[in-house]
């Protein structure tokens, strides 16, 4: 079987003929992963997810989920896929239990699943309450419960933590993590918050203005980030420091007594310090800059 | 497939729970009989003479004339809008389309709900008409609306014909309600199309206009013009088939769902 549980090839999409909302998206979501689909608002995340679920008609034949083609095998795919697109889709005049009952019939799963998903999402006590009275966090959890009803292999979630308070965000994050680790579900989760994706994902895709700018494991993203990191060093002799390091590292002077040194591995910081001190340069401060993912994300999307 | 369609149709009925659909049906059915009870009891000197020959048939027609021409089209416009708006208002279309249901299943299961509610409205209306007649008789026996003489055949005949006449409109309104997220648009279009029918009633091509079929089904005297019944029944069925086909094709080929 193909190792990619979700796959698109050269996916383009526009709502009009003269526009490109998505431009050559080659998404690769490995089985068993939590794939963080990251991008600022309006980047094309929701459009991509809607295409994956067959909610938008596409001429592109190369959208594949679970080895099957969308939209040709739409029903087969949706039988094995759970989804939560944007805000939760709930009938607010019905109770949580009634909402689940409506979708249970569509998914043709046994009545016992309703109790199970309520337990998984910790909503058993609120099952008989009308969902209008639910907090946003509870609504999101019920949305996830609906997505889990048919015990799908893949979960596609669009900004599931959007608008939640910190407690709600942690709850949803833990729930997704449990679903991935304990239930073995592949999760594709979109977000515009890097910090969220960083805490949850094993794989990351960064989309901006309809283009997939980065795709890989979280470790690869961190490596990528590290390659772009600089050491900011405050020295008593800038000229001498530049002479010592410039043969091996890229050095730039940044103000009176500060230099920026590019490096690729964490242990090189110790080596640089050793070289400077050994060369008679006094080092009063040494710090890493530009190594936070947030900045990297901004760098990638503004490149 | 059939079991699944049945299960999904029952799910569509669950969605109407606690909505205004049931109240709208009962209130709309009660409206005309309630008013007519008051009119009959307040104006016996004007109306008694009309009720002498065929009291029940006269009473049925007295009630149905308003319903066939005005209340039923209004009810259909409102109920189709209300049923479809349950999805728009709750932002649930995308979840419905992201569930493993065929497009036909989604389209027709909701249409079935509407096609159950419209006859249910008519049944309620007929029931209220009979109760209203009995109430009128109990207060003023001169109307001779006794339980034993209820003309069930005429009542069923009127109801059946008017229902056949309104079927295409119910599908067109369903299509418009699906097509537009903003509930004002199908509501306004429905009212506009219905008023246009009333205005163009004397037009020689009006037989091609489905919004007048239910009115024609009631107001044309088919005993005098039996050939007209064939024309209107044929037109109603043709309009129904055509409206279902166009609505289904159009909705299935929309570029965006949910």
Record keyword descriptors for this entry.
heterodimer, A: 303 residues, alpha/beta, Rossmann fold, Alpha-Beta Plaits, 2 domains, six-stranded mixed β-sheet, four-stranded antiparallel β-sheet, 16 strands, 25% strand, elongated, B: 258 residues, mainly alpha, 76% helix, 0% strand, ATP-binding (chain A)
Give the number of domains of chain A: 2
Mean pLDDT of chain A: 88
Mass-distribution shape of chain B:
globular
CATH H-level homologous superfamily name of the largest domain in chain A: P-loop containing nucleotide triphosphate hydrolases
Overall structural domain count of chain B: 1
Distance between the termini of chain A: 36 Å
Low-confidence segments of chain B: none
What pattern of helices and strands is seen along the backbone of chain B? HHHHHHHHHH
- Give me the secondary-structure category of chain A: alpha/beta
Question: Strand order within the widest sheet of chain A?
Answer: 8-9-10-5-11-12
**N-to-C SSE string of chain A, H for helix and E for strand:** EEEEEHEEHEHHHEHEHEEHEHEEHEH
Query: Could you tell me the radius of gyration of chain B in angstroms?
Result: 20 Å
Percent helix of chain A, as a range, is: 25-40%
Tell me the number of helical segments of chain B per DSSP (H or I, 4 or more residues long). 10
How many beta-strand runs of chain A?
A: 16
Biggest β-sheet strands, sense, barrel of chain A: 6 strands, mixed
Strand fraction of chain B equals under 5%
Strand content of chain A: 15-25%
Structural class of chain B: mainly alpha
Number of strands of chain B: 0
InterPro entries (chain A): AAA+_ATPase (IPR003593), ABC_transporter-like_ATP-bd (IPR003439), ABC_transporter-like_CS (IPR017871), P-loop_NTPase (IPR027417)
Keywords (chain A): ATP-binding, Nucleotide-binding, Transport
Protein name (chain A): ABC-2 type transport system ATP-binding protein
Family (chain A): Belongs to the ABC transporter superfamily.
